[in-house]
Amino acid sequence: MTDPVDPAVEAPAPPPGTPNSEARQWALIAHVSALLGFVLPFGNLIGPLIVWQLKKDMDPFVDDQGKEALNFQITVTLMLVVCVLLMLVLIGILLAWVVGIAALVLVIIAAIKSNEGTAYRYPFCWRLIK
To answer: N or C: which terminal CB in the chain sees fewer CB atoms within 10 Å?
Structure first.
């Protein structure tokens, strides 16, 4: 009778070009670190910037997703600045809520996709850092 768990049989190797689990984890952290903006002023920029700067040389996937997270947070910050200016005519209050909720949803989607090893591209993102 054979043992159902054979130690000689290993999990199949990931396909070439697929980021390893550590790279996927750091990409996830780059996206999720933007949630620091709910705790610290400009934490949404500081979190992805720190993760990207510390881990960009580790793996091309982490470099790509770190830049993507940072670019998106720069875009969100600029949108919120415009919303603050529009608060003078009251529409900015509503728009700030819409931008905040949309950013939260897109960050969660990006974190899930990057954890799966898929390079995520945010919609409506101004890519300043190439």
So the answer is: N
